[in-house]
Design brief:
Elements lengths: L1 H42 L4 E16 L4 E15 L17 H29 L2 E10 L16 E5 L2 E2 L3 H9 L5 E8 L2 E9 L2 E3 L3 E3 L5 E4 L1 H5 L7 E5 L2 E2 L3 H9 L5 E8 L2 E9 L2 E3 L3 E7 L2 H27 L11 H18 L3 H18 L7 H14 L5 H32 L5
Antiparallel strand pairs: 1-2, 3-16, 4-5, 4-6, 6-7, 8-15, 9-10, 11-12, 11-13, 13-14
Length: 436
């Protein structure tokens, strides 16, 4: 009986610890953000009524000399409640009675602390590798096609890809992932001369949106393939009309597919089932090797700053892609989806004894939160900053009641948006497909 209890507890713990870690991980990022607001409010003598981590009902609290410190039930945010933040106050230490430049610093401090944390994590990430990556091409693989006539060359320094500047080796992989046509425009520095390469071709292969075991039984599916009516446990019999007998034949047939649409015949419940025109992802074959430098303090720190800059741009490029319709609702994630991603990365980090994936996701999330909060959206820090900039330009603040109405409307819309994203996150966890 004791062995059964221990086994059960062990199984529960194996499922619980990544979730606990993810919540703590997410909570740390929130604490850093709110601490930025809090510490500068204190520096400038602003009266802080409450410093809370989490939202919803209070589960722990401690009253300080001036400030109540609280831990709330739901780990999806936090706040610093300052006297005179949303209304007029006669208190000389109220937020509204401080100088404009002090209020601006307090408002941007949270996002700034998130970005600083991201830079620090990026430095650790760069330092965890054996070498520091550069944007120079060291050599090409034997099967490379990008070094054909009018293509890339060894020792080229990559300056731009598809019109976007390359700050780090991280940019190279990210910018090439945005375009899976296999055709890219490059600007390189070659022998000291800036050279434009308007069409560099790379091989494009059909990617694996699914996993399978040695018996060709599907063990993992993307949401897209689930929507195509493939199921976990299906055994693959044919691909594009060709009998498949082993893993190698399957891999060869998928990778050699030209239109990236696959016709499957699978064995399901003792019967054959046809699933046609399944759209698979395309993957550009990255056919060159980047030069790595020996690590030292300066290139590790410099590389960390460059990585952080690359991630910052990734946030805004992804936002523009979302506006242009390149991403849909299923590509977005709120706190629930973020915790799920962190959980998966944490489990993989333990299995591989490599924390670089965890560091990468932490840097990306904290920089994302920092930059997103600076967007001029009502109810966010950037919305408050916008009104302060208006006050700075016109030397007169907007009437508090109007500003509060705008922030209140923004908060309602933001909460509604978060509710939709949360519902999508939950449905993705339950169905593995999402809303569409």
């Amino acid at each position: 009986m004791n062995i059964q209890i221990l086994t059960t507890l062990g199984a529960i713990w194996s499922k619980a610890w990544p979730i606990i870690l993810a919540v703590l991980f997410f909570g740390l990022i929130i604490i850093i953000h709110e601490f930025g607001h809090f510490i500068f409010a204190k520096i400038f003598g602003v009266k802080v009524n409450e410093f809370a981590i989490g939202m919803g009902p209070t589960i722990l609290k401690k009253q300080g000399k001036e400030t109540k410190y609280a831990l709330r039930l739901f780990p999806i945010g936090g706040f610093v409640s300052m006297e005179g933040e949303d209304e007029k106050s006669e208190d000389k230490n109220a937020f509204c009675n401080k100088k404009l430049w002090q209020r601006i610093i307090i408002v941007v401090a949270g996002a700034t602390f998130n970005i600083i944390l991201g830079i620090i994590v990026c430095c650790f990430l760069v330092g965890s590798d054996d070498y520091v990556g550069t944007n120079y091409i060291l050599q090409f693989h034997e099967t490379a096609v990008s070094n054909s006539e009018n293509g890339l060359r060894e020792n080229d320094k990559i300056l731009k890809i598809d019109g976007k500047h390359v700050f780090s080796d991280y940019d190279i992989s990210f910018l090439m992932q945005r375009n899976n046509t296999g055709k890219y425009s490059f600007v390189v520095e070659r022998d000291g001369v800036k050279t434009e390469l308007p069409e560099v071709n790379f091989a494009v292969r059909t990617g694996g949106n699914f996993s399978y075991d040695k018996n060709l039984q599907i063990s993992g599916l993307s949401a897209n393939m689930k929507r195509a009516k493939l199921e976990e446990g299906d055994k693959i019999l044919k691909i594009n009309g060709k009998d498949i007998k082993n893993q190698q034949e399957l891999a060869n047939e998928v990778s050699s597919d030209k239109d990236h649409k696959i016709d499957f015949v699978v064995l399901r419940n003792q019967g054959e089932v046809e699933v046609n025109d399944v759209q698979l992802a395309t993957v550009t074959v990255f056919d060159f090797v980047i030069l790595g430098q020996e690590k030292n303090f300066f290139n590790v720190v410099g590389g960390g700053f460059k990585y952080a800059l690359s991630m910052s741009r990734l946030v805004y490029l992804s936002l523009f892609d979302l506006i242009r319709g390149n991403y849909g609702l299923n590509d977005l994630a709120g706190p629930i989806g973020t915790v799920s991603v962190i959980t998966d990365v944490a489990e993989e980090s333990v299995k591989s004894a490599d924390i670089s994936g965890l560091l990468m996701i932490m840097a990306l999330i904290t920089i994302n939160i920092g930059l997103f909060n600076l967007l001029p959206i009502p109810a966010l820090d950037g919305g408050r900053l916008f009104f302060m900039i208006v006050e700075l330009i016109f030397r007169k603040p907007i009437a508090p009641k109007y500003e509060n109405w705008i922030h209140a409307a923004g908060m309602v819309l933001l909460l509604a948006f978060m509710a939709i994203i949360a519902a999508s996150d939950i449905w993705k966890l339950v169905s593995g497909i999402g809303f569409y």
